[in-house]
Amino acid sequence: MAASTSRSPLRNFLDGANNDGELVTNGTENSLTKLVVENAVIVFGRRGCCMCHVVKRLLLGLGVNPAVCEVEEEKEEAVLNELSRINGERGGIQFPVVFVGGKLFGGLDRVMSTHISGELVPILKDAGALWL
Known about the structure:
Layout lengths: L8 H7 L12 H11 L2 E6 L3 H12 L5 E5 L4 H12 L9 E4 L2 E4 L1 H10 L2 H7 L6
Parallel strand pairs: 1-2
Antiparallel strand pairs: 1-3, 3-4
Helix pairs in contact: 1-2, 2-4
């Protein structure tokens, strides 16, 4: 009996396939833009990345439930290029990538520095990710 593997709905959405394995007509560009716009906080990272895990745990500890999109190795370059275009920049983005309120926030270093300085919680409140 084959072991079943559960996949995140976000990963299915990003992969461009529905649950039946059929190709979804919207491309990566529209998919990523939609994910960034529709989520108050979203974290993009390599599958199994420890830095992505740290960002996720920190946000969860603050009471934010971020969407997390794990990117397969073969799709990394395309996803990073598209995330750069969404933000209006060329290159320079590395995983993990955190978007807050539909805008590029930064990576682990920015999340940690704003948390330590006390600036992160007000930013998350302004984005609608925290209510208290």
